[in-house]
């Protein structure tokens, strides 16, 4: 009678269901060197751990300051349907940067500095080249934002995602001194609203963007001169876009601008006075609906729309999609990606400091007595 062999299979396997555990584990193990590039001395090594370790308080022998009354700040966000455009063009590193930006830009609004970041990537199959490019983009965004890529999860779900599809989510934790938390109650009449230029569309409104592309029969691989960014448009944030004649697809994949470095530097400059009374990250719902979250109920922000240039990509999409002005303002940032509300006596100094950090900054409005509304935005 022949001996039984352990190599024989008599039933279904996980691989038969479309999930290759070995491929996933192999990819996860390959990320160590990419993640370590984002680590600072607050990250505690934890090989084989099920979670990342991060030292919150400072050791005086290592650091120059300690938190006296620390408050943790946390947020979660994704990239939305911009991932569909990335998949169509086969470019993934830029949406990795987007994922970080959409989180850290929210977090710094409260006056916090980013500490660490976690990602969640859902795919139908493990494509090491695609995932590697994506994680490298995430790591680049983390490094430029001063936070550690502490860990993440890659979910292999063939029954949920069709071939070529994927989704992203990110989670960021930061810290701020309780006395330095930026809240709407600090904003008063007379304060000046400064607008920091966006890199373009950032990561909101891409369902409409893709609808315009389909409706107008636009070619993502073609150069449209009237959609090109102007030479003055800031590009910091890790964009892979070529400096000359980018295609429409490359323009649309320009990653969300990362604001943590200049904002954290600005906040650290003012250690005694609360010069910054409010901030806002301009994402979905446009300038007015995001800025209104940063002012109290007894104040209005009066915005002058003519005070900054609208990037060409917005006017291009509006024309191609025959979109009315109100819809454009409601969906897109229209050239302002972040707002800083400053005390009037310090507004010029704040603007200058941000400009020295590489930002294009415009005086876009002023706070007046009112009923908690944004007027003109």
CATH topology of the largest domain: Phosphoribosyl-aminoimidazole Synthetase, Chain A, domain 2
Element-by-element helix/strand order? HHEEEHHEHEEEHHHEHEHHEHEE
Per DSSP E runs of 2 or more residues, the count of β-strands stands at: 12
Major sheet strand order: 8-10-7-11-9-12
- Which regions contain 5 or more consecutive residues with pLDDT less than 50? 1-7, 235-242
Termini separation: 85 Å
The structural domain count equals 2
Secondary structure category: alpha+beta
For this structure, the quaternary state is single chain
**Helical segment count:** 12
The amount of helix comes to 25-40%
How many strands, what sense, and barrel or not for the largest sheet? 6 strands, mixed
Q: What's the level 1 CATH class of the largest domain?
A: Alpha Beta
CATH architecture of the largest domain: Alpha-Beta Complex
Cα radius of gyration in angstroms: 23 Å
Give your account of this protein's structure.
A six-stranded mixed beta sheet has the order 8-10-7-11-9-12. Strands 3-6-4-5 form a four-stranded mixed beta sheet. A two-stranded antiparallel ribbon has the order 1-2. The protein is of the alpha+beta class and 377 residues long. The model is unreliable at 1-7 and 235-242 (pLDDT under 50). α5 links the parallel β4 (113-123) and β5. It contains twelve helices and twelve strands. It has two domains: 17-46 and 67-180, PurM-like, N-terminal domain (60s Ribosomal Protein L30, Chain: A, 2-Layer Sandwich); 184-375, Phosphoribosyl-aminoimidazole Synthetase, Chain A, domain 2, CATH 3.90.650.10. The longest helix has 18 residues, at 128-145.
